Structures are given as C-alpha cells and as structure tokens.
C-alpha cells in the first residue's frame, strides 16, 4: 500500500485553485467591474509566442500529490510576462526578447568530480528522467512571490546519473552564453555566463527540482527553457535558467550575484523574513498579479524539509 505522509506545509489539493477556474473568475470579475469588456479581455489574455518544442507531447505530466500549496496558482499570463532573465535585459518585460533563444539543439555537459563525464542531449535527459508536476511557491528577493505548477524531475535523479565521486561536495551550474541572441549579455559589467551553486546535500534534498515544463507545457523560453533549477526554499536568483553545464566540485562555487554584490546576495540565499535585504525588508511579500500581501515564511514554508541541512553552521550567512 502506498501511504502518502502529508507535509507540514501541505493543504488538500483542492486548496490550489485550478488555473482555468482562476482565469474564468478574473474574466467575470473584470467584466462586472465597470462593464469594461474590452479591458477584461486584455487583462485576461495570455501571451501568444510562436513556439515549437519537440518535447510538447510529454506534457502534461502526472501531479505529485505530496507537493501542494496554501494559495491559488498564479495566472499563467501574468507569470509568463513578469520575468527576471538578465540575459535578455534587467527589466521584467523580457518575454518577447527571450523568444530569440534557440532551444534545439541543446546539450547539458556533466563534468568535474564524476565517474564518467558526459554530454547529454536535452531530449535524452527527458527520456531518462521520471517526469512529474509539483506545485511550488517561488519567492523573489525583490519581495514578490508566485505559485506555479512546475514539471520536471528531482535533481537527485540527475546526481545519481552523474555518479559523483566521494570528493564532490558542491554542484556548479552554468547557463548559456550567446550575446548575439541574448542582448543582456552584451553588458560587460556583468560576469557572464550566469553561474549558481548548491551543496551536494542541498542538491539531493527531496525539494530540489529540475524544471523542464510549467502550466502543463514545456518551459516557455522566458522561464529558462529548456531546463532550469528550482529550489523553493531559496530566493529565486538561486534558480538558474537555461542550464548548459553542471560541474561537480570540492570547491564552493562563486555565484553570479555573489560575485556582483556578495554583501547583498550570498551563496546560501535561504528565505528568512527576519533578515532584511540591506535596502528593503523581507517580512512580507506581494502575491504576483494581486494587491495581496502575505507574511513571508521561514525557508519559504519548507522549514521541516530543509532546516536540518544548516544545523551547526555557525559563522555562515545562511540568509541572503
């Protein structure tokens, strides 16, 4: 018998409003408020980008009921048009610019302290991995948040495939570098390519996830297609997009934002409402697409699953 043990942060799946229901409710309320039918249609329209993804037939995938939410899903149209992806610009409206990214062919190199370095085609990765959908909260250090249905597979499965040696302690992730396509990478003051890192213990935690889809479809390019990292207990800048290289190492990686401003964006970047960013508070967050603010939760609400990773680490700036 498969017994599902509820997490402390879980609520029944019915608590997560289905995306189509949420959209219909917005259409109705917008139409009621002032009779602006044209405005209502504009607000509820979703982005329409020309997209051909050979993995489209794989989605939607089955939802894992162990990963649920305490809030409605964010509208796909809103989440898809409010994106941090500095490769394409430092503003949020980069969705159209991101469509220049070519996601096939796409390979991911695995090297460093592994038994057998290898380069895998993205479609081979998708064929090897157990795809599932998880509802996760996503918290930005800019103090906004969203709730989305990621599709993909546990990062631990990729670690297993890589077969790291006993000396491996960290994983370094690297994104693509192509300034001809990504205009933001022409800004020489940034240390391109984008780099992030996790400890091996963090990477093999049950929550660490490699996302290849969202909202029941392959990842849209502005979300970091065709493969990105999702670590829901950390601030969003740790979730590196459009990964091309994964290196196992015994040295702690220096991440992109840590190199730029280490006093504000450290390696650990765990969510903690009690530790303000040097320039703004973190005690609450704005739910993307609404005027609602909620109190931010320690580890973004995933304390029971990850707090043990950081016990006894005195002297480390574990938050931010």
Could you explain how this protein is built, in words?
The chain has 320 residues and is of the alpha+beta class. It has one domain: Alpha-Beta Complex (Sulfite Oxidase, Chain A, domain 2). Helices cover 18% and strands 20% of the residues. It has nine helices and twelve strands. The strands form two sheets. Strands 3, 4, 7, 8, 9, 11 and 12 form a seven-stranded mixed sheet that branches. A five-stranded mixed sheet has the order 2-1-10-5-6. A hairpin with a 5-residue loop joins β1 and β2. The longest helix has 14 residues. The radius of gyration is 19 Å and the shape is globular. It starts with 18 loop residues before the first helix and ends in a 14-residue tail after the last helix. The N terminus is likely disordered.
Keywords:
320 residues, alpha+beta, Sulfite Oxidase, Chain A, domain 2, 7-stranded mixed sheet, 5-stranded mixed sheet
């Amino acid at each position: 018998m498969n017994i599902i043990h509820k997490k402390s942060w879980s609520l029944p799946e019915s608590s997560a409003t289905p995306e189509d229901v949420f959209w219909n409710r917005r259409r109705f309320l917008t139409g009621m408020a002032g009779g602006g039918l044209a405005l209502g249609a504009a607000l509820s329209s979703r982005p329409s980008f020309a997209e051909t993804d050979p993995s489209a037939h794989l989605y939607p995938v089955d939802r894992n009921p162990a990963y649920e939410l305490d809030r409605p899903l964010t509208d796909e149209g809103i989440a898809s048009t409010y994106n941090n992806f500095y490769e394409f610009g430092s503003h949020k409206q980069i969705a159209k610019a991101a469509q220049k990214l070519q996601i096939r062919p796409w390979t991911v190199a695995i090297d460093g302290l592994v038994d057998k370095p290898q380069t895998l085609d993205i479609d081979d990765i998708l064929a090897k991995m157990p795809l599932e959908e998880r509802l996760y909260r996503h918290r930005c250090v800019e103090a906004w948040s969203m709730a989305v249905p990621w599709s993909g597979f546990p990062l631990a499965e990729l670690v297993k495939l890589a077969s790291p040696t006993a000396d491996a302690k960290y994983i370094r992730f690297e994104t693509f570098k192509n300034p001809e396509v990504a205009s933001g990478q022409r800004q020489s003051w940034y240390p391109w390519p984008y780099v992030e890192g996790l400890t091996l213990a963090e990477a093999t935690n049950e929550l660490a996830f490699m996302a290849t889809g969202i909202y029941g479809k392959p990842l849209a390019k502005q979300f970091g297609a065709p493969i990105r990292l999702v670590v829901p207990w950390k601030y969003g800048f740790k979730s590196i997009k459009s990964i091309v290289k994964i290196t196992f190492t015994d040295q702690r990686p220096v991440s992109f934002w840590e190199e730029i401003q280490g006093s504000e964006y450290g390696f650990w970047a765990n969510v903690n409402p009690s530790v303000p960013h040097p320039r703004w508070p973190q005690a609450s967050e704005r739910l993307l697409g609404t005027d609602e603010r909620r109190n931010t939760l320690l580890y973004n609400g995933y304390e029971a699953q990850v707090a043990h990773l950081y016990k006894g680490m005195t002297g480390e700036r574990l938050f931010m």
